[in-house]
Design brief:
Length: 185
Amino acid sequence: MPIQVTSVKRAFIMIYLGIARAVDQEYQTFDFETWSQMKINAGDETVGLIGRMVKIPRVILLSVYDRLPKKQVRFSRYNIFSRDKNICQYCGKKFQRPELNLDHVKPRSRGGETTWENIVCSCIECNRRKGGRTPKEASMKLIKIPKRPHWTECLNLSPKSQLFQEWMPFLNVIDFSYWTVELEK
């Protein structure tokens, strides 16, 4: 199960210290010594060591891990835009971030709080049209009800993150759901 994205430097340190093992495309695991002696193919990204090159591991397996981290997605403008995919939640159009702002679904003037469940992306025109009213009062409909995203949706990946081919088996939502869904008694 994917837990986090880390840097190449940290991955190498963890493998070298025996905290993690490198995983190849056939799901075989390697310690630092065997990984560093692995044959490098054309197109493999490498890091230079003294006197040799070493293939960059794109997936590592922690040797010891006792629990899944209880992370919550930080409540920030960036993460709200990411949750809503830069789409105005009233008109449904996609905008560049500078053309968007945040709207309180239930206005602050009426006791609306600044929470995941009450903030949505809104284009400037829709925000102006809605004003200090609720969407119902303004005859506007929300595209989707705002909610707090789960940390697994983000996995510390930004929209600009490079996704490596080696990651795909671990990022497949269907496979991930199969292994993580709670079973009925």
